[in-house]
């Protein structure tokens, strides 16, 4: 029994390595399937699906990283690797950097998708002029580069409180902006829907533009995705904050004893997202069936 358990009287919750490895394999296969589907189907070559493909890419990085970490842990438990060796420490930093990159990348991907949905709903006539594929590609390049560099800096200077404060502030700002966009979007959408119904109330049928239904369905899908992201990543994010700012408090130690559960939730997010894509998008379902049956 270690010191933290003596101080908090909370036994550490643990899961077999096979559970993490199984979730990692399935989530890796699912997210790779999403990426290939978006590339394969030209009907999915739109800004929203490109950003969703980017989100799946970051989930793929997270799944692959955790799988590699689990394999290394098995070798370390069998004495094949030194847990405190120089090479092993550097490899651990790389793994932490990739996990941090996938977390930040998911946040920025959701932010980009929220902006895309806002433009598609309230600037529909100028959508294709504003959200061009060239701008989409540039945005994705900036997201991946920024997240990669920021993740390396955060892991390198993780002990610095300034870096931790910046990390927390970045997450909270992005979270607030995404929530504001979605709330504002649905409020305006409700007002616009009432206006459209009022204009059509004189006729026998009420009809709204087709783009309206598609855009609102896309916004609702991404709201579900973002909710799943918050539920799965928030415990792990809070765990990182506690490591940096609350080392000796017994309540903090008790929360840290659930670390493996937090990691399990983190990995489950990469498993849940593709299921939401398939459930909400008929085009993706059709592409999945076509790819799997033909192959």
Low-confidence stretches: 1-6
Largest sheet: none
Q: Tell me the helix content.
A: over 70%
Q: Ends: how far apart?
A: 52 Å
Question: How many DSSP H or I helices?
Answer: 11
Q: Mean pLDDT score, rounded?
A: 78
Computed CA radius of gyration, to the nearest angstrom: 22 Å
What amount of the residues lies in strands?
Answer: under 5%
Give an account of the 3D structure.
With 295 residues, the chain is mostly helical. 83% of the residues lie in helices and 0% in strands. It has eleven helices and no strands. Helix 4 runs antiparallel to helix 8. The longest helix has 40 residues. 30% of the residues are buried.
Describe how the helices and strands are arranged.
Elements: H1 3-8, H2 17-40, H3 47-77, H4 86-122, H5 127-130, H6 133-156, H7 161-200, H8 210-245, H9 250-256, H10 259-280, H11 282-294
Helix pairs in contact: 2-3, 2-10, 2-11, 3-4, 3-6, 3-10, 4-6, 4-7, 4-8, 7-8, 8-10, 10-11
Short description:
With 295 residues, this protein is mostly helical.
Jot down its keywords.
single chain, 295 residues, 83% helix, disordered N terminus
């Amino acid at each position: 029994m270690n010191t933290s358990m003596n101080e908090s009287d909370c036994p550490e919750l643990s899961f077999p390595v096979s559970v993490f490895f199984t979730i990692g394999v399935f989530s890796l296969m699912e997210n790779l399937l999403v990426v290939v589907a978006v590339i394969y189907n030209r009907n999915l070559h739109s800004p929203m699906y490109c950003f969703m493909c980017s989100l799946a890419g970051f989930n793929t990085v997270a799944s692959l990283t955790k799988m590699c970490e689990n394999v290394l842990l098995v070798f370390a438990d069998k004495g094949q690797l030194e847990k405190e060796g120089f090479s092993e420490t550097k490899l651990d930093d790389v793994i932490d950097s990739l996990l941090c990159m996938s977390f930040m990348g998911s946040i920025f991907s959701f932010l980009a998708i929220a902006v895309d949905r806002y433009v598609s709903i309230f600037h529909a006539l100028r959508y294709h002029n504003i959200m061009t594929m060239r701008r989409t590609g540039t945005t994705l390049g900036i997201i991946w580069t920024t997240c990669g560099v920021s993740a390396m800096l955060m892991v390198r200077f993780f002990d610095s409180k300034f870096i931790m404060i910046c990390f927390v502030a970045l997450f909270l700002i992005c979270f607030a902006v995404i929530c504001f966009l979605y709330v504002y979007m649905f409020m305006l959408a409700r007002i616009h829907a009432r206006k459209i119904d009022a204009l059509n109330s004189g006729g026998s049928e009420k009809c709204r533009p087709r783009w309206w239904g598609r855009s609102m369905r896309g916004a609702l899908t991404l709201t579900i995705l973002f909710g799943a992201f918050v539920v799965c990543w928030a415990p792990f994010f809070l765990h990182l904050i506690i490591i940096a700012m609350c080392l000796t408090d017994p309540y903090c130690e008790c929360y840290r004893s659930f670390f493996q559960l937090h990691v399990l939730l983190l990995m489950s997010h990469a498993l849940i997202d593709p299921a939401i894509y398939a459930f909400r998008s008929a085009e993706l379902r059709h592409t999945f069936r076509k790819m799997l049956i033909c192959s």
